[in-house]
Amino acid sequence: DEGGCGGCLGPDPRCELFPDRGVFQHMITLSGVHKTFEGNHVLRGADLSVGRGESMVIIGGSGSGKSVLIKCILGLLAPDAGEITIDGAAMTPKTQAGFLDRFGMLFQGGALFDSLPVWQNVAFRLLRGPRKAQARDIAIAKLAQVGLTADIADRYPSELSGGMQKRVGLARAIAADPQVIFFDEPTTGLDPIMAGVINDLI
């Protein structure tokens, strides 16, 4: 769309971004989400809406619930109360698998599998789906997209630098061509130069 949000449903003055274009369609919505761990209230009625095609940054101090919020959206943690919807459909155990197929995730610590070579880390989801036969080729193509050459495909994460591990994590996040990508402090632990490289790739 030429300057538009890509989620307009029809003329409506309530659209905060483009009032002359129409209502902004929310892809991800959280309503009154609560999460507590052993009496520690991490999320207290969190409300959030993210529109299709929108980029959003959540900023907060350590322990303020940023990672917990993402994990609740992904279904890795179940909220104690509240509702999470994707394109208007509620996240439930039955719908979780379908939702996850649309998401990619770059974890704060990389979360690579030490026992698997790089290409299998990148293609982890593909190896469990209909594109299994093409998984290695797709993994190498995604590695190239993040600036890594094919010769590291058979190496193990422990043989890579921290920056290279982050790139592998990013390649895995985009391997299945997801509609939505989540980044949990993607430059943590990197020097300023490599942090800039990862930010540019993102």
Structure overview:
This protein is α+β, with helices and mostly antiparallel strands. 26% of the residues lie in helices and 20% in strands. The chain contains six helices and six strands. It has helices at residues 66-74, 96-100, 118-122, 135-145, 162-174, 192-201; strands spanning 26-37, 40-51, 81-86, 89-90, 103-106, 180-183. A four-stranded antiparallel sheet has the order 2-1-3-4, with helices on one face. A two-stranded parallel sheet has the order 5-6. A hairpin with a 2-residue loop joins strand 1 (26-37) and strand 2 (40-51). Helix 4 crosses helix 5 (162-174). The radius of gyration is 19 Å and the shape is globular. The two termini are 21 Å apart. The model is unreliable at 1-24 (pLDDT under 50).
How do you describe this structure in short?
The protein has helices spanning 66-74, 96-100, 118-122, 135-145, 162-174, 192-201; strands spanning 26-37, 40-51, 81-86, 89-90, 103-106, 180-183.
